Amino acid sequence: MTTSEKYEIADLVIKHALKCGADEVAVAISDSASSQIEIREQKIDKLQESISNGLSLTLYVQKKYSSHSTNHLKKADLLKFVEGAVAATKYLSEDEFRYLPEADRYYKGGGEDLQTMDNSIAGLDPKQKIELARQAENEIFGSDDRIISITSSYFDSVSSDVFVTSNGFKGESDGSFAGLSASVSVKGATGRPQDYWGEYAIYFNDLIKSGIGKKALERTLKKLDPKKIASGKYPMIVDNLVMGNLLGPFISALYGSSMYQKNSFLTGKADTKVASEKLNITDDPLRPKGFGSRHFDAEGINAEQRAIIENGVLKNYFIGTYYGRKLKLPPTTIGPSNLVFKTGDKDQAGLLQSVKKGVFVTGFNGGNCNGATGDFSYGIEGFLVENGNLIHPVSEMNISGNMNTFWNTLAEVGNDPYRFGSFLTPTMLFDNMDFSGL
Q1: Ramachandran category for residue 80: left, alpha or beta (phi over 0 → left; psi -120 to 50 → alpha)
Q2: I want to staple 393 with a disulfide (CB 3.0 to 4.6 A). Which of 226, 346, 398, 438 is the partner?
Q3: Using DSSP, how many helices (H) and how many strands (E) does the chain show?
Q4: How many CB atoms lie within 10 A of CB 174?
């Protein structure tokens, strides 16, 4: 479906919804294509290709709000769908805060190309994709008697969307993604550890296509025969690959929805110190080739770079239009785009070298964080570190604490931001983490 065809459908839906009694309307139309290939035991275990399209309709009718979706996009089907949606909305309760954003906050167009779309991905030969997945497995197949299983995968997707509102917004966005990964399990004296490695990119030519299987096996073999260590307080180094697990609850507490639902331990802390001065986070939606880059958010609001944490001080929340009105707070944006960290001067090896005795966390196994209080407990796996060296793997251990104090123990930030997502988390070193083990 072309962009102009999507706009024609959106205009049809908006006009009909208004005719049926809606006061305001927003329409999003998307189409996407994806493929996934898995190789196991040198055979194709999964080969999947999908193409989909759909329409999402948001209605504001007599101070009542509803959201609906359909993938039936023929004119007759759409008109009937709209009529039913408007009629159903009239039965809902009123909410005086539910109406579209003010038009002057919308993205007006003209932004630079954010390089989020590689059109070549849609034309790739399936044989090439299969061969790349095979190659990841072949790097290690039969190379070690301890290997139990290997699964290698290739996957990609492309998508194109338009968003239109009845009060003047029109915008389009697109994106692409390609990845290669390998997962390996091995037999050890005390268990069967498994691990993986993956490489991901927005542009196919930027995708690293070799070394994936070898890296996955290397990571897995390091986890053989883990031990527990004595409970106590230790410095904790968290791998950039999994640092997002600890960052997630902190970011969730910055959402307007969390604050309104009294599920945020950061409510009322704007312009106060909430973390170590080492923590500096910027939300940067205009980063070229960023996994979270955008010209406008899900409401059509113009994307802007803004400081979130500055030298440990909370500067901005993620507040959409609706919760901004309910909380009587100025809206910013409905959610994060690319979270960029001010990095330090040490790589991961340098951070490890600075630790006399501590724990290098490379994975999390269950656990939770109470959004309202900030109390958390997580199962971890990783390595005992002594004098900068990895001594042996550790598992069946937990960390616990409270997010309000935890982020103030941040001692150093690495110079190795995570490359494969919208949270560009570096490796981080924390002082005196509570570990429970033996």
Answers
A1: alpha
A2: 226
A3: 9, 17
A4: 18
- Supply angle C-alpha 212, 216, 218, rounded to 5: 115
The Cα–Cα gap between 263 and 274 comes to 17
Total residue length of the chain: 438
| Alpha-carbon separation of residue 51 from 35, 48, 54, 157 (angstroms) | 9, 10, 11, 10
In this predicted structure, the answer to whether residue 52 has a pLDDT above a threshold of 90 is yes
Q: What percent of the chain has pLDDT over 90?
A: 97
Residue recorded with tokens 């897995």: 220
Task: Find the helix or strand (DSSP H, E) in which 162 lies.
Answer: strand 147-165
Please, are residues 309 and 315 in contact by the beta-carbon 8 Å criterion? yes
Pairing of strands 375-386, 339-341: unpaired
Q: Which domains does the chain have, with CATH numbers?
A: 3-221 (3.30.2290.10), 226-438 (no CATH)
- Condensed to tens digits (0 to 9), the pLDDT of residues 244-293 reads 999 999 999 999 999 999 999 999 999 999 999 999 999 999 999 999 99
Q: Cα–Cα distances in Å, from 165 out to 8, 22, 54, 68, 313?
A: 13, 12, 17, 15, 36
* C-alpha to C-alpha distance for 7 and 164, rounded to whole angstroms: 8
Residue-wise pLDDT for 109-155, tens only, equals 999 999 999 999 999 999 999 999 999 999 999 999 999 999 999 99
Least Cα distance to 279 among 252, 254, 250 occurs for 250
Q: What is the pLDDT of residue 438?
A: 57
Instruction: Extract the tokens encoding 183.
Output: 């997962």
